[in-house]
Amino acid sequence: MVKKDPIHDKARIQLAEKVAASGVRHRQVLEAIATVPRHAFVDEALDTRAYEDSALPIGHQQTISKPSVVARMVELLHKPKKELGKVLEIGTGCGYQAAILSLVAAEVYSIERIRPLHDQARAKLRPFRIPNLRLVYGDGIRGLPQAAPFDGIILAAAGLGIPDPLLDQLAIGGRLVAPVAKSEEEQQLVVVERVSSQRYQRTVLEEVFFVPLQSGTV
């Protein structure tokens, strides 16, 4: 995925070390953070900040999430001693998290509702020729029923609840990781595991901050 680049190679390794220090322990996730060139997914004007553990603007009132948050959420998708199969990402954004997911999951589908972001992500990801990643332009709230069920679903935006179509498309034994808004000012990271066809187990974790989840396409 990555061409030899001594300056950015060192920056990626240092970023992975910062992410590990934040509490992420999953080996594959940390290796993915150390592999994917984050500078390739941000505006050139922000190149010097690409390997900070911070969120950065990507246009259209959207952001690329903090690497430690990306890693935390991707780690939460994993179940102990089980490989991650088919994953659905809601909110492609610039494509960085999709690239991370492609290194830890067997198959990745990523939906973006904003056409310019979808097109930009496709252009940014094209040089990497990732065979197990599919980008889709569409309404993420509806999910992707034609490719369901998914072993993991991850949302990059916060709604007041988790859309029913996404819960329906989660495989039994699968996990959904999402920020959920309690109010305009308060959001929490939530993990939902589907334990049977009708039963879901919900775990509320730490406070987070994401852009709002919106329906439709633009």
Outline the structure in words.
The protein is an alpha/beta fold and 218 residues long. It has one domain (55-208): Rossmann fold. It contains six helices and nine strands; from the N terminus they run ααββαβαβαββαβββ. It has helices at 6-21, 27-35, 67-77, 96-102, 115-125, 164-168, and strands at residues 56-59, 62-64, 84-90, 105-112, 133-137, 150-155, 170-181, 187-194, 200-208. Strands 5-4-3-6-7-8-9 form a seven-stranded mixed β-sheet. It has a two-stranded antiparallel ribbon with strand order 1-2. A hairpin with a 2-residue loop joins strand 1 and strand 2. The chain is globular. The model has no long low-confidence stretch (mean pLDDT 96). It comes from Polynucleobacter victoriensis.
Search tags:
single chain, 218 residues, alpha/beta, Rossmann fold, seven-stranded mixed β-sheet, EC 2.1.1.77, PCMT, Protein-L-isoaspartate O-methyltransferase, SAM-dependent_MTases_sf, cytoplasm
What order do the helices and strands come in, and which of them pair?
Blueprint: H1 6-21, H2 27-35, E1 56-59, E2 62-64, H3 67-77, E3 84-90, H4 96-102, E4 105-112, H5 115-125, E5 133-137, E6 150-155, H6 164-168, E7 170-181, E8 187-194, E9 200-208
Parallel strand pairs: 3-4, 3-6, 4-5, 6-7
Antiparallel strand pairs: 1-2, 7-8, 8-9
Helix pairs in contact: 1-2
